[in-house]
Request: fold
Amino acid sequence: MDALRIRGGNSLRGELHVSGSKNASLPILTAALLAEGESVLTGAPNLVDVCTLATLIEQMGAKVTHDEDAEEIRISAAGPINAEAPYELVRTMRASILVLGPLLARFGKAKVSLPGGCAIGARPIDQHLKGLERMGAHIEIEHGYVEATTKGLVGAEIVFDVPTVGGTENLMLAASLARGTTVLRNAAREPEIVDLAKVISSMGAEVEGAGTEKITIHGQSQLQPFHHCVVPDRIEFGTFLVAGVMAGDPLVVCGGIADHQAALIDKLRNLGAEIDVDEANRRTTLKRIERPSALDIHTAPYPGFPTDMQAQLMALLCVANGTSSVSERIFENRFMHVAELNRLGASIKVEGGKAVIRGVERLSGTTVMATDLRASASLVLAGLLADGETTVRRIYHLDRGYQRLGKKLRGVGADIERFSE
Ligand code: UD1
Reply:
């Protein structure tokens, strides 16, 4: 298994480039199942999760060409498709559930393994299933699989109980090939939803309101394949911003859309960071600050503070001047990084859904274990801050969502190397 060894304390100087968005790429790849011709996604990051989904679609019978150097994925779902997503692949990546809507809409049937829980919580899919049923699907859960059939989906008005990103995407995909108009209320507003709406519109189904809580999709009987360049990854961008506040000398983060991380940038400014945003050229410049002020955050659906950034910001709050708090309101068990940050000398207590972080003057390097994707990034950031050597083990989690993070950070001066244990 691979690990990262980091010697903390170096300044980060130069340019860091943000890759294409993982979370936007995943639903867009499944959108290729909606059309017969060849769809092309460019800017797709070379990440394990993206490859897993491409493999899943290929195993169903689609022709998939993944040119990793060109960051381009071509998918042609013209031939016969076996509308089934087996447990072996779904269990490694929950987002595989996003094939359900497109398969059902185009082929009238789909069999997809239930994703089950994961390290950060139970993560049900009831909202996906409720919406599809409302559109005319018959759904049974048998032997751990969702088995869905329909004689033809029809547009419906659906109000989500909670704004779910995956649920909104699955239903948008299904609605694009449904008869009539679908209205989604209390929809997720994340930038990934807006990117997916652009893809679906380019395929021929009219989409209004993406990015707001009400999305209207006018379904079509047939869709064209798409050619789309994916939006930049806002979580990788945000992770680099935190690195810049820790160690920038200065650090220029290129390619990220500042508007997509407005809540994080606001919090970073509150804790004392100077951030120069050149939105037109997508260049954000940051300098290290002496010691951050403490602050309180709570995670919320977009445009609130993203749950996918709380672990990384917490690494910085470990050395803040005063006591901070982080309340996690999206996933019930997303504090796995806390025990590991404490091993690095942090002073964090978890009380229910809230972590209370008493700022310490410094962290000190040791061996820590990555537990999930964003927790891994938090440990890498903490390692950049800590005195001495930090080893982050089990970084396969990191490979799911960060394209060559170690190499990118080394390029701007971090003392970081990857090795096999
Ligand atoms: C997506 C992101 C993930 C991010 C999360 C929240 C992808 C591939 N993943 O995950 O990185 O952390 O959004 O921003 O884009 N829920 C239900 N019923 C459902 C669906 C969700 O109760 O049917 C709940 C979840 O348990 C959670 C909340 O809704 O509490 C939000 O989850 P959701 O937005 O669906 O997350 P994902 O799409 O799985």
User: Anything to note?
Assistant: The chain has a mean pLDDT of 95. Residues 234-247 form the longest helix (14 residues). Residues 22-229 form a domain with the UDP-n-acetylglucosamine1-carboxyvinyl-transferase; Chain fold (CATH 3.65.10.10).
